[in-house]
Amino acid sequence: MSANSPNTAQGIKIVAQNRKALHDYEVLQRVEAGIELRGTEVKVIREGHASLVGAYADIDKYKNEAWLIGVNIPLYGFGNIFNHDTHRNRRLLLHKREILKLREHTERKGNTLVPLSLYLKKGKVKCQIGICRGKAAHDKRETIRRREGDLQARRAVANAMKRR
């Protein structure tokens, strides 16, 4: 990220993004949530090491708690015997009304909660959760076609600017 990036002006440093989720799912709504972490986990995330591959979020309907499942935060290099478990379930910090709203959305057919990105905002670790619906194969092909068209258009503009 450059110093002139709009994210650095807002105090946001993106640590991990789930690009595959944007390919496989249609994002209906995005929600920002805090994460309950241990000290060594925060240190590893500040170093920029975390992975959202295969991760998902779930709502425990008995306790009304939101959980982030399958996020890989590797062991802290300078940790000791009290180091964290790399694949443990982590609780999401949301208001009760937000949890109830997310639960209502996920109980609808075809909707799921997917972590889209993990980032630092004003020194706090945040996770962007998306309420998503799975894409059909033709929707994925359309997304790829649109992305390739945009790329070709950008290249054509860049080449035209170079020729001047």
Question: Would you give an account of this structure?
Answer:
This protein is an alpha+beta fold. The protein contains five helices and seven strands, in the order αβαβαβββαββα. It has helices spanning 6-9, 19-24, 39-47, 96-106, 137-163; strands at 12-17, 25-35, 56-60, 65-69, 90-93, 111-121, 124-134. It has a seven-stranded antiparallel sheet with strand order 1-6-7-2-5-4-3. A hairpin with a 4-residue loop joins strand 3 and strand 4 (65-69). The two termini are 29 Å apart.
Structure in a nutshell:
The chain has 164 residues and is α+β, with helices and mostly antiparallel strands. It has a seven-stranded antiparallel beta sheet.
Topology, element by element:
Layout: H1 6-9, E1 12-17, H2 19-24, E2 25-35, H3 39-47, E3 56-60, E4 65-69, E5 90-93, H4 96-106, E6 111-121, E7 124-134, H5 137-163
Antiparallel strand pairs: 1-6, 2-5, 2-7, 3-4, 4-5, 6-7
